[in-house]
Structures are given as C-alpha cells and as structure tokens.
Specification:
Length: about 180
C-alpha cells in the first residue's frame, strides 16, 4: 500500500523566494506581451503547488501577498467550496492579471456552489473583469445544460452589447 507524502509546510515568504529563484526574464517578457506579470514557467509553478497540496488557509495568505505568481499558487492549493461568495467577489475585484483572473474563474469560481447566486449581478457589473467572470459562469452553465437559463434573452443581449464591449468582456460573451 502506497503511503501519502505529507504537504510541504512553507511560509508565504518562502514561496515568494522560491518563485523569485525560478524567475526567467524571457518567460516574463513573453507573458508581459499578454498583460501577465508572470516570469515563472507555469509547470514549475504547478510543481510548487503539487508539493504544497491543498492548504486553504495558506492559500489565503498567498493571495494576500498581491503577487500574481503567488496568487496562481494560491488558486491551485485552495479548496474552491470553502470560499464565501463575498470572498470570491473581492478576489475577482483584486485580480487584475489576465492569467490570475482566468485561473480564478476556472479553478475556483466555477467550482463554488455559491457563485450561481452572483452570476447575474456579476454579468451586470460595471467592472469589465467581474462582468467577464459572470459571462464565463453563464457559458459554463450553458455547456452543462442548466435548464433555468433564458438562452434567447442571452443571445439578444450578446447581439446588442458585444460590439461595444471591452475586449475581455467580448471574449467572455463570445464563449
């Protein structure tokens, strides 16, 4: 019978130092062209998260650093169902790096059962990143075949608003 390796216990400062040691200027340059403040190979970043395993409280500490790379690690070591909708809302408003927003929506928000209650208010939010998250949740629900969606109304809204919507919001509506 295989034994489980315990999660590695690190401090937020130790994770930040490890991420800094993995920094590659070429990766940062390539990512910055897409608005991402990330200089670490994502496979190596995932390796850190794999060693840490799920540590929800520590994930909140990493998120609080404000560092984009630490936030990606935080997302990977989080327990999506443990966040309140208020925490998710705050995180969506704090995450300004496209990769962080994408991972937050796909790895946390879509897996949190409370997020459905905020889907429509998020779609109508004045913050284009929050609105894009609401649209991503909606497209996720469409793909899952959720029955209580007004598909004709959604299509009308997309047709009416997509042309003048900001790029990120257009991308989410186009999903």
């Amino acid at each position: 019978m295989a034994t489980r390796t315990p999660a590695e216990q690190l401090t937020a400062d130790e994770v930040l130092a490890e991420l800094e040691a993995l920094e590659d200027p070429k990766i940062r340059e390539a990512n910055q062209r897409h608005g991402n403040d990330i200089g670490v190979n994502l496979s190596k970043l995932r390796g850190i998260a794999k060693r840490l395993k799920t540590q929800h409280e520590f994930a909140k500490e990493l998120w609080a650093t404000g560092d984009a790379q630490a936030r990606l690690v935080a997302i990977l070591v989080s327990s999506p169902k443990k966040y309140t909708v208020e925490q998710l809302d705050a995180m969506l408003r704090q995450a300004r790096v496209p990769k962080v927003l994408d991972w937050l929506v796909n790895y946390i928000v879509k897996k949190n059962p409370e997020s459905e209650d905020r889907r429509i208010p998020w779609m109508n939010d004045v913050d284009e990143d929050v609105a894009a998250a609401g649209w991503s949740l909606t497209s996720h629900h469409v793909a899952k075949g959720v029955k209580n969606l007004n598909i004709p109304g959604l299509l009308d809204r997309i047709e009416e608003q997509m042309q003048q919507a900001p790029d990120r919001l257009q991308w989410a509506m186009n999903e």
